[in-house]
Request: fold
Amino acid sequence: MANTVPDISLNDGNTIPQLGFGVYQIEPKDTAEAVGRALEIGYRHIDTAEMYGNEAEVGEAVRASGLDRGEVFVTSKLNNGFHRPQDARRAFESTLSALKMDYVDLFLIHWPLPTRYDGDFVSTWKTLEEFQRDGRARSIGVSNFQVPHLERLAAEADVVPAVNQIEVHPYLTNEQVRAYGSEHNILTEAWSPIAQGRVLDDPTIVDVAEQVGRTPAQVVLRWHVQRGDIVFPKSTTPKRIEENFQLFDFTLDDTAMERISRLDKGEAGRTGPSPDEFDYIPA
Ligand code: NAD
Reply:
């Protein structure tokens, strides 16, 4: 079986590689090297954000790779401090100039911040609709949106988000939000897909890994892939960046899939903040 990353169709007609490379918590000084390594290995999808502080280095690595811009799918996200439409327009311009790109493949509202901005993430979303109309964001989506947030966009906005990027891993399978997505043609992107390493020594994961002759990280990432979600594990270790790319030359059977899904701890399994309460705005 060849290790080829599938392209998945988005609801706007564009496609996205199902496996990418995440750069959250990679220091700017280490980012270009890590992204460069990932592109050499074959990753063609990079997930960054204004709040990660490393957009410039992502752009630098894409240019240094020698690949055409059109061969690499680049996602960035709006800083929590800039939800007001005028601020969002300026922030989006800064993202493009940091990346030194004239478009991003995907631009997301990073967090809904329902307790900020008078609870108004709809005008922020409508501003992203402008970026898509003018071609500077090929696709637009949201991140950390809960079902009521998505329902509100459906009622008050024109464009259905192409993706919702949410925390998903075996300890937080996040089924309700995923189910809303699949019913409404919104793809789920699973962030912290290996729960920042926390699920890797779980006895069930270790057991499945031994059965299929793969590493725990590969088994967990493969579980996501077979559920149809998009993943972009993060690592700065070349061996792990390579390991996390080898997901398409083996499969998990239904029993293994089911055993992993049963590890769900619901809200107790969350590693990040609750999107209903998170209100962080960078200084
Ligand atoms: P992750 O689940 O990808 O785990 C990363 C950590 O796991 C690494 O720091 C490393 O220590 C370890 N690791 C990676 N590969 C390994 C391997 N093969 N073997 C053993 N250990 C390994 O966590 P993440 O970085 O939080 O999430 C991935 C990406 O998701 C981020 O880089 C970012 O792009 C995105 N993200 C988005 C949000 C959001 O709010 N939208 C939040 C967090 C993360």
